[in-house]
Write the structure tokens for this entry.
Amino acid sequence: MAAFEYYSFWLQVLEKGFGFFFFGFTILFSIFSILVYILRLKPWCNCDLCRSYSTSSWSLEFNNLCDWYSHLLQKSSTGTIHVHVLGNIITTNPKNVEYILKTRFENFPKGKAFSVILGDLLGRGIFNVDGDSWKFQRKMASLELGSVSMRFYAFEIVANEIKTRLIPLLSSVSSKEGTILDLQDVLRRFSFDTICKFSFGLDPACLDLSLPVSEFANAFDLATQLSAGRAMTPSPLIWKLKRFFNIGSEKKLKEAIKLVNSLAEEVIKQRRNKGFSSHHDLLSRFMANTDDNKYLRDIIVSFLLAGRDTVASALTCFFWLLAKHPEVKEAILDESNQIIGTSSSEKLASLEEMQKMHYLQAAMYESMRLYPPVQFDSKYCQEDDVLPDGTFVKKGTRMTYHPYAMGRMQSIWGPDCHEFKPERWLQDGRFKPESPFKCPVFQGGLRVCLGKDIALVEMKSIALSLIRQFDVQVIVPTSHSPRFMPGLTASVRGGLQVQIQERRYKSS
Ligand code: HEM
């Protein structure tokens, strides 16, 4: 007995000693990491740009950080700037963009810093990986998304959501005079329904306003918001420590991700029970190739992120621009009348008819040139490099290209770069695409967006239905540019408040 007490006494001493050592080591290691991080960032940098960033004095003059960056990039002779306090080089130079996204693709991966920030939410999904894992997923996803049958499937889903939910909802609003609607919210609900139906064949019915917003949509929203918030903290150690102690925003994030995971698992289970071999949705197609549930969960979450807020953001800004430019709305209406006819405003355009609408396609691209849903995108430099404009990029530097600022560069678009002119995308009345390195709205090079065609079909279908059947009056002042919320995708602060009236259709 005495021997037992003797051993248990020493065991306790050892346990406490080890705990104390471990705790001390963690604290010392954290302090050391903070110091290394601080030394790399040069927080003492007192150049005008860094001082303005650190004190947020830029916000006295500009509504959005992206507007301030655009201003600085326009002034720079190379179209490139260095924010020393962030260890971030930002460029708008199309030659640099091509170099990063294509020529030296291997030297500019997404990198660990990005994948750690989004890792808890996205797991090993296509957005969050580099190397072989990315190549494998890219190959599989491009086979599916590139197929003609998938495009028809996506079109059918969108057309059905328009006919059965969007039009009835807007008609009911238009009949109640004075009703104000947040169009951005409606578009987000629409794109959540369609991306869920498309990705895993289930309908969350978010656009049905009589139902409460789906738990899944809410949890997903919160998880993306809080994950994006991690990138805004001055040092990653802050959110890592909060995650370690499970406090504050990290506690909320953990709970939101737990809910997303359990709902994703439920989706996979339901799909398996219903059988997937005869279904067209993306999940069923991936299930035919793998039975790894974690991998399938990561695919679901990545596609939700890809297809939800991007489409809603692009369309919100499109309608904001149309409110300022009624002549563009009239031109779209005229073109559609010529192709679909004027006998019925309710008739939806077919895929073939939409392909003939060159002006509509030009207006969509012109809107995204000025208001890209993904305003900037960062990679990490693996080995020291020199960009085509002569900028030296040190290993470990965050390298950002900035589509929002690129749309405002005179050197790329000429002196009328700030104007909304769909005609700049037309040659002899036909849509003429620009180099993706000049307008990288869907990125460019080896990781170019895989859902570009599907997104455009969705956006054009919604825009046409709204323009042909309703008069959408934006009720916020369109004299100012929109203010954006910080996040992975640009969404307008306060939404887009509109009033809707059903059009009295002119019969031909
Ligand atoms: C207007 C709508 C859209 C815009 C502006 C857009 C833009 C982008 C951008 C900028 C990227 C690169 C992201 C990065 O690597 O950091 C990307 C990647 C991707 N997008 Fe889209 N996207 C849109 C809609 C969609 C839709 C609807 C889908 C799916 C149905 C989709 C699927 C993807 C996928 C799978 C990738 C990853 C490609 C890869 O990493 O190899 N996108 N998109």
Remarks:
- DSSP finds 20 helices and 13 strands in the chain.
- The chain has two domains: 1-41, 99-502.
- Residues 1-41 form one domain.
- The two ends are 104 Å apart (CA to CA).
